[in-house]
Structures are given as C-alpha cells and as structure tokens.
Amino acid sequence: MYTNVAGIKSPNPFWLASAPPTNSGYQVQRAFEAGWGGAVWKTLGEPIINTSSRFAAVSFNGQRVAGFNNIELITDRPLEVNLREIEETKLRFPDHAIIASLMVEPEQEKWHEIVKRVEAVGVDGLELNFGCPHGMAERGMGAASGQVPELVEKQTYWVKEVAQTPVIVKLTPNITDITVTAESAVQGGADAVSMINTINSLAGVDIHTWNTVPNVDGKGAHGGYCGPAVKPIALNMVAECARNPSINVPISGIGGIGDWQNTVEFMLMGASGVQVCTAAMHHGFSIVEDMIDGLSNYLDEKGIGSVQEIIGKTVPKYSDWGDMDLNYQTVARINNDVCINCNKCHIACEDTAHQCIDMLKGEDGEPILQVREEECVGCNLCSIVCPVDGAIDMIEKDNNLPPLSWNTRQNAINAKSLANS
Amino acid sequence: MSTGNEMLLEKLQANFNEVEPPLSHQEAFEEASRCLYCYDAPCITACPTGIEIPSFIKKIASDNLLGSARKIMEANPVGASCARVCPTEELCEGACVLNGSTQPIMIGKLQRYATDWAIHNEKVLFKSGKPNGKSVGVIGGGPAGLSAARELGLMGYGVTIYEAEEEAGGLDTYGIVSFRLPKRVSFWEVDQVKQVGVDIRTNTRVGRDVSLEELKENHDAVILSVGMSDVPMLGIEGEELNGVHDAIEFVKQTKSGQLSQAFAGKKGVVIGAGNTAIDGATCAVRLGAENMKILYRRSEKEMTAYDFEYEFAKQDGVEFRWLTAPKRLIGDEAGNVCAIECEKMELGEADADGRRRPMPIPDSTFTLEVDFVIKAIGQTRYTDLLEQFNIHHDGGVVTLNDDRFETSVNNVFSCGDVIFGKGQGEAMVVTASEQGKQTAYQVHEKLSGLQAESTA
Ligand SMILES: Cc1cc2nc3c(=O)[nH]c(=O)nc-3n(C[C@H](O)[C@H](O)[C@H](O)COP(=O)(O)OP(=O)(O)OC[C@H]3O[C@@H](n4cnc5c(N)ncnc54)[C@H](O)[C@@H]3O)c2cc1C
Ligand SMILES: Cc1cc2nc3c(=O)[nH]c(=O)nc-3n(C[C@H](O)[C@H](O)[C@H](O)COP(=O)(O)O)c2cc1C
Ligand code: SF4
Ligand code: SF4
Ligand code: SF4
C-alpha cells in the first residue's frame, strides 16, 4: 500500500483532496485516524469570505450526488491558524502526508513568502492550486492563471526557486487540451501534476422559482463540478498526460473517485496516487476503510506485491482512434435463460441502432430475443441498456480479415499514390 | 358510562382506518425510478384494463402526478380502488420482469400514490364529450356500471345510472372493508363519473321503483350491471336465530353509520373461506370480537381467498378450522344463537369443477360455543329480476350474445358480477371495470350502426 508521489510518502495511495474535508486540523486528524494516507490542506492564501448557500448536487434516477457543484472559494480561516494546526497534525501523524495547497496572486514575492511560511511548519509537499474555476479566477487566481500556459510555467518556476519540498501543480480541466498546461508545469519545474480540479458548471434551475441552483439571495454564478459524473473526464485527462512523453512526472489522480475500483482505474491509467473530495463529503471519512481493504484484496487476488506495480499498466493500451483495428468485429449474443424479457435491447436497437434484435416466440410460445448477427455492428448499445448482468454478451467474431487501422490504411493509400505519381 | 362508550367507539373506529400505509413522496420516487420502462411490457398485458403501467410510473418519477393519475384513470375508471384491492401479485406485479431478477415493482402502491394525489388535490381528470343526442340507462352503479357510464359520457352519451342504494360505488362503497378500501376513495371515483355528465339516481331500485320497460322507452340502450345479491341460505337448522348474519350485510353495516358495539368481547364463527369470509372475520375482530374462527368444509388448498387476504386474516388472529362443516345452529331460550354443531370432513373424489368433494366422517360431531355466526358461502343471484326482465340466463348468470355483452333482449347489455360464472370472467373489481368499458364500446358500435342504417 505504501505510496510515493514524487518523493511525498504516505502509508497508502488515498489522500483527501484540498476541499472542505481538509479545512481544519480537527478534520484532518479524524481523517488520518479513519485511515486516509494523506491530506491536501484546504487551499491557503489571503482569507476570503464565502457565500451562504454554496453547494448543489445533481441526482440521477433517485441516486443522490451523481454530480456535485460548488461555489466555495479557498480557506476562510486566517493563515496563522491553519499553519498552527498543520504543525500540530504533522506532529501527531508524522508518517502521513500533509500537502499544503496554495493560491496567491501571480507575483513572485507573494509565492516566495507563502512557500516559506508553510514549509516552516513541516509540510511534506506543496500543491499549487491553478484550478479553482470560480471567484478566485475573477481575481486573476486559480483557473484564470491555470488557463494561461505561460503563467502556469512562470508561477511554478517562482515556487521552485524557494521550495524545499516536492511541488505538485494542480490543473484545471477548463481548457481545451490539458497536456499543454501540464507540459508548462513540467517546464516550470513541477515535481508532479494533479488533476482535475472542478469543471465549470451550473447545477440546475429551479423550474418553480426560476432561480438558479444554488443561488445566493436569488443570484447565481457558475460553480465547479465534481463527483461521480466527472470521473470519465478526469480519467481521460490523466491518461492523456500519462501517455505524453513530455509530461514525465508523477500524476496524482482526482475526480469522481469514490471506491477502490475507481482508484485502480486511475492508477492503471497512470496515476501514482489518488485524491478524493466528493465521496468523503457524501459519506464521511470511513469510506476509506473499504478503499484500503478492497484494494489490498484485489492486489492479493492478482498476486501483486505492491500497489506501485499497477501504475500505468493500461497506458500502452490507450492510443488514437486511427490506430484501432477496423477489421476487428464483435456482435451481441443474448442468453435467453438469463434474459428477463424487458425488451429494452430490442427497442434500443430498433429505434436507435441497427434494427437487428428480433422479438420471437419459442416452441412453447415463450418469448425469445435474438440478434441477427450479420447485421449487428457491435455497438454495445443493447448490452448497455440491458438491466441484467450476463444477459447479453458481446462476443468476438472471427472474420478472417487481417488487422487494418485507419492510419495503416491511409499510409498504404498514400504510398500507392506516391508510387503512381 | 357514556365516556366509556365513546372511548370504545373511538377505538373501534381506529380499527377501521386503512391498514396499508401509503408510500411517501420519496419512496414513490425511488420505487418509480426502479421501473425499467420495459418495451411491450408484460405488466400492461397482465392488467385486465391494460393500464399503461410503465408510462404512469415514469410520470411519477418525473413528478407529473396529474398526468400519471390521468393515465391510470383513463384505462380504469375505478383505478384508485383497484390500486388497493387488486390481487396484484396475480396480475401486474406477478408479470413484472423484475420477478426474474430482483423484486417486482410495487405497481399497486405506486398506482395508489398517483391517484391519492389526485384525490387529495381534488383534481377533475376528464370532461364529457360533445353531446351526441343519444342516451343510455345503466342499472347498478358498481364498478361495472360506473366504468361503462364514464366511457359513454366521454363519448357524448347522455347517461343515467339507477342505483338502489343510498350511494353509488357498489361493493367498492359497501362491500370491501374500510381498512382496505375507505369509502372516500370510491366516492371520488363516483364523482369523476359525475364530472363527465353522468346523472346518478340513487335510492332507485329498478324492478321496484322504476321498470325496465320505462328504461327501454327512455333510453336508446340499457346496461344491466346489478352485480350479485345476498349470501345464500345454509339450509341447516337454526338459521333464523338472532346473531346469525349475512357477511355482505355485516360488512356493509361497518361502512354505513356508526360502528356496532355489540360484538366487543364476543366469540364468533364464519362459515366459508372465500374473500368475503375473510372480510367478515377481520371486520368482526376489528369490532372487538374476542375470538373468530373460520369454518371451511374443505382444506386450506381448496380455499378460494387470495393469499394476501389469508395472510391478513392470520395476522388479525383469525383461526381456521379446515374440513369442518356446520350441521346445526343452536339457540338459547331468547332465540339467540349460542352454539354451533359441526362435523369433521374428509376429501373424496373430485367433482365436476375439479375440486375434491368433502365427505362427512362418521361420528365426528362436536359443538362450539358462539355468540354470533357470519355466513359467507358465496352470493346469490338476482334470478327473479332477470325473469321479470325476460332476460335469458343460466342459473341467474346472464347469457350473452357472442362477445358483445348484449343480452337476449335487444339493446339491453350486461357486464360485471351479474354475468360472472359459468366460465364468464372473474368476480373482481378490475374485471368489472374492464367489462364496463368494453360494454360501452359495444353499445356505441351498435347505436352508431343503427344511426348509419336510419340515415341511409
Ligand atoms: C366482501 C367482498 C370482498 C371483495 N373483495 C375484493 C377484492 O379485494 N378485490 C377485488 O377485485 N374484488 C373483490 N370483490 C369482488 C368485487 O367487489 C366485485 O367483483 C365487483 O364489485 C363487481 O362489480 P359490479 O359492478 O359488477 O357489482 P357490484 O359492485 O355488486 O355493484 C352492483 C350495484 O348494483 C346495485 N343494484 C343491484 N340491484 C339493483 C337494482 N335492481 N336496481 C338498481 N341498482 C341495483 C347495487 O346496489 C350495487 O351498487 C369482493 C367482493 C365482496 C363481496
Ligand atoms: C466544496 C468544494 C471546495 C473545493 N475547494 C477546493 C480548494 O480550495 N482547493 C482546491 O485545490 N480544490 C478544491 N476543490 C476541488 C477538489 O479538491 C477536487 O479537485 C474536486 O472536487 C474533484 O474531486 P472529487 O470528484 O473527488 O470531488 C473543491 C471541491 C469542492 C466540492
Ligand atoms: S450491438 Fe448494437 S447493432 Fe448489435 S444488436 Fe446490440 S444494439 Fe444492435
Ligand atoms: S435487455 Fe436484457 S433482459 Fe431485457 S430483453 Fe434484452 S437481453 Fe433480455
Ligand atoms: S414489467 Fe415491471 S419493470 Fe417492466 S415496465 Fe412493468 S413494472 Fe416496470
């Protein structure tokens, strides 16, 4: 379980992300007692004033907190208080990782000053918050500086000028290509990058009052989105950075992680450790118990000695669309003994895919669902909508064609036209 | 003294409050969200009235409760009652595909949630159709008659229901116990039927207060939906004693006026083991009877009550005495029943309807002390009425022409319990409702066909 992210050591890969769960010494100490391996302290800087009514969440089909939205800013507690509590916590938990999240105006002296002050109380590392998408960005900090590659590089450089501990740069997802800002952070000397911070969002509109959700006395502003809904976006960003040779620093994965399975996914995709916010806010610190237990059982079952061994194992399998084999084919096959006859696969394929699932009757008049495999394009839709595990298998169909990707095909065509000219 | 009485009355009244709790908003939403929204869903096929179940459930999930209630009531004019009294595990819920994986959707409870909302918010769901100048008389305002009348009202017919009782609703109003189906639910359904312009004349018994001939003169068509009548005679000694009750009348008393305090602390038996017997027994328990036994001459297996009813009775502490037949009711000097002589039975050969015939075991007679007896061995037929109307019947079951719900008398149609038996339908609220709808369509087809002929 032992984890090392760019020299920051922790007893396990589970850190709390910089956010409300890490707002105070009391909370971080409770978290460590519960089993969390590290904590990125709620972002320090000039204390601010928060709004009342800050959070909102999106429910999906009765599932609460499918996505979470906030308009909270950085810490609203005086720096001295935070520093004192960091020191206390570090003394009590010397083996746990405490990382100070920092955000100040983009000026060299300001960065130098804060870095020195937090390192003086014994933090294990620094995380530069270039990601907060609201409020702080309107004042030129957070995502506002995180969206400008030159500012990312320059500010990282300033921090590195004085920092004694490893520096993680936390990236905002509110950009077109995260590898650009990640590369800038590396250029600036970052020891690691973490991603993602929250995504610009508006949780909803109250259709009865016509107010935004959340609203502060009738007024709303965009917030930041996180929680389970953002996981696929975060995972892709981690993967894109992991497979980019210019971004040769460890990655701390964040975004929608709530259990050990998500953690394994992020680590396979290149993260050296993970950070969690929403899941802890939804269920409390105790969720880490199953994260540790589940991960450890998983590793044992697979005969893997250390969690470090899984880092990046799926990265080589992640490439470009143009590299995929266009001759590879799968088709859906329905197991009628498992099927409960809801006919959802039929209507999904009929109305919105390729019209190849028939509703038939068996010898005794029992309903049977059958795929016309010649016409199935293997899109997966039926197996996605099927409510029963194991009722639809997507099976490989051997068509005796050699592998052929778009890129090889185009290269061949180009070579041919070259030869012809 | 009077305060003691009031306290008892209050306690008894509480016993008659609806037993099943409603779903909360959250429970309804979560359960609705669990529905798969099947395509060509088997639950729809299993509902005799064909309610578009996935659709009404989806509307609960999207908080469109008006739309949901309308979807239900559109297909089933007594859908609020059905939500409470249908044997759902044998119908929609029994067919739910989730039986094959997890737990079936609580369709009945969701249906109740949506219709309760409409009742609570006093929603009027339907408007009468454009008047077409034709009129239909409906005899009997139970589920079958109400359903037929509602459909005809929507189509623009002038409809009059003739109802013998003080209130319409039939057995929904007077026959099904309050703690399963409160009267107000049935009254709301009656009200919805009135809202489509149907005129309901209560306290009007056809054959006594008004004749069929008059109805035939005043209407273009007549629908006979009088249901069934009292419990038959047992044909044993002592039946005329005080304290011997007809189960249907017994239940009806608990749904009209003040509850009787005469049963508190008393011992009673019910003879029979259908749903009516169970309702009689549970009503008696709730009136404070100290001990209730159900006597049935066959065994548990042959009992006709629904499983949920049987369970319910057991929970109410009702005892069952299988293979026990009454031989004689014994009275005291004042003419009150005080004991019942019984005989043990065993099952012999199967008879014509496939059930094994109970045979007395010699010398097995024994006596039970009782304070009252409830007879619940089925319902008799309005045979005299049918004779009076010259309608062909088979032992009181109306004979129909083809599948068109028309009787042997031209333009007199019939549906509901009055046609039940001899292989025709089932005595359930939901089938009565569906038959009512179908009868309305047949009436319409016939009358509009006539119209075409006369204009030709
Ligand atoms: C005790 C009991 C419990 C039951 N429980 C259930 C249950 O849980 N679930 C279920 O699905 N079914 C149940 N049933 C069956 C169900 O109630 C009936 O199948 C259904 O009510 C039949 O509807 P109907 O309209 O045909 O008849 P009814 O409901 O009997 O209505 C007939 C109406 O006609 C009126 N009428 C009769 N004669 C005349 C006349 N000459 N002139 C004018 N009006 C007249 C009557 O007053 C009555 O209002 C139960 C029945 C009983 C007796
Ligand atoms: C209420 C709230 C406040 C947050 N505040 C900060 C912050 O001060 N600094 C920061 O770097 N990230 C902040 N975040 C972002 C989280 O650290 C994290 O990057 C994001 O929530 C994604 O992880 P999750 O899906 O596990 O929640 C905040 C998130 C939330 C929900
Ligand atoms: S995989 Fe796609 S095309 Fe094939 S049967 Fe399923 S839905 Fe239809
Ligand atoms: S979606 Fe699944 S369960 Fe439903 S009919 Fe298709 S195979 Fe069967
Ligand atoms: S069968 Fe069950 S899951 Fe499917 S639509 Fe009906 S209630 Fe919903």
Structure description:
- With 421 residues, chain A is α/β, with parallel strands linked by helices.
- Helix content of chain A is 32%, strand content 21%.
- Chain A starts with a strand and ends with a helix.
- The mean pLDDT of chain A is 94.
- Chain B has three domains: 103 residues, Alpha-helical ferredoxin (Fumarate Reductase Iron-sulfur Protein, Chain B, domain 2, Orthogonal Bundle), CATH 1.10.1060.10; 163 residues, FAD/NAD(P)-binding domain, CATH 3.50.50.60; 132 residues, FAD/NAD(P)-binding domain (3-Layer(bba) Sandwich).
- In chain B, 38% of the residues lie in helices and 16% in strands.
- In chain B, helix 4 packs across helix 8.
- The C terminus of chain B is likely disordered.
- The chains are: A alpha/beta (421), B alpha/beta (456).
- At the A-B interface, helix 11 of A face helix 2 of B.
- The site of one iron/sulfur cluster has 15 residues of chain B, from helix 3 and helix 4.
Structural topology:
The complex is a heterodimer of chains A (421) and B (456).
Chain A: E1 3-5, E2 8-10, E3 14-16, H1 25-34, E4 38-44, E5 55-60, E6 63-70, H2 79-92, E7 97-102, H3 108-120, E8 125-129, H4 143-146, H5 149-162, E9 167-170, H6 178-187, E10 192-195, E11 199-201, E12 204-205, E13 212-213, E14 223-226, H7 231-242, E15 251-254, H8 260-268, E16 271-276, H9 278-283, H10 287-301, E17 330-334, H11 344-352, E18 357-361, E19 367-371, H12 381-385, E20 392-396, H13 406-420
Parallel strand pairs in A: 3-4, 3-16, 4-7, 7-8, 8-9, 9-10, 10-15, 15-16
Antiparallel strand pairs in A: 1-2, 5-6, 6-14, 11-14, 12-13, 17-20, 18-19
Chain B: H1 2-15, H2 25-34, H3 42-46, H4 53-61, H5 65-75, H6 79-85, H7 92-95, H8 107-120, E1 135-139, H9 143-154, E2 158-162, H10 171-174, H11 183-195, E3 199-201, H12 212-218, E4 221-224, E5 244-246, H13 247-254, E6 267-271, H14 275-286, E7 291-295, H15 307-315, E8 319-321, E9 324-331, E10 337-350, E11 356-360, E12 366-369, E13 372-375, H16 383-389, E14 393-394, E15 397-398, E16 412-414, H17 429-455
Parallel strand pairs in B: 1-2, 1-4, 2-3, 4-16, 5-13, 6-7, 6-13, 7-8
Antiparallel strand pairs in B: 9-10, 10-11, 10-12, 14-15
Helix pairs in contact in B: 2-4, 4-5, 4-8, 5-8, 6-8, 9-11, 9-17, 13-14, 14-15
